[in-house]
């Protein structure tokens, strides 16, 4: 019989309930140094960093190259639980703004950019 636990969420990931044996084998597991480098950025916690690594984004340089919108779309493909808060956090990490400021001041432009990106534009 497996025990269930609720994993804490970072700004852009919903909490989920997983069995303890499954949590250890999660595809979100990442090499500690790669996830730590990403998590050290403003707004990015361990869960966000693991989601980035799971999506193949393994460095800050790669994140900068993709930009927040493309990186969010890539993460969303690999981690469906990712929320728009992750988009705000990614943009904040790249612009050195708190994710709350990004959500308040840049929400509309980011949503429009995401829609354009998803429509192949």
Automatic annotation (TrEMBL):
What organism is recorded for this protein? Hylemonella gracilis ATCC 19624
* Chain intervals for the UniProt region annotation (Disordered): 1-28
The domain of life for this entry's organism is Bacteria
Q: Which InterPro entries match?
A: TfoX-like, TfoX_C
Question: Where does the signal sequence lie?
Answer: none
Q: What is this protein called?
A: Regulator of competence-specific genes
- A Pfam short name: TfoX_C
For the TfoX C-terminal domain, which residue ranges apply?
37-112
């Amino acid at each position: 019989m497996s025990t269930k636990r609720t994993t804490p969420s970072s700004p852009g990931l919903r909490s989920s309930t997983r069995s303890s044996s499954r949590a250890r084998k999660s595809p979100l597991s990442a090499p500690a140094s790669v996830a730590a480098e990403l998590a050290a950025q403003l707004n990015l916690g361990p869960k966000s960093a693991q989601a980035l690594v799971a999506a193949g984004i393994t460095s800050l340089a790669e994140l900068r190259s993709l930009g927040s919108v493309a990186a969010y779309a890539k993460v969303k493909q690999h981690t469906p639980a990712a929320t728009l808060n992750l988009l705000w956090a990614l943009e904040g990490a790249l612009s050195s703004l708190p994710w709350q400021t990004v959500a308040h001041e840049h929400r509309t432009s980011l949503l429009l950019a995401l829609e354009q990106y998803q429509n192949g534009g």
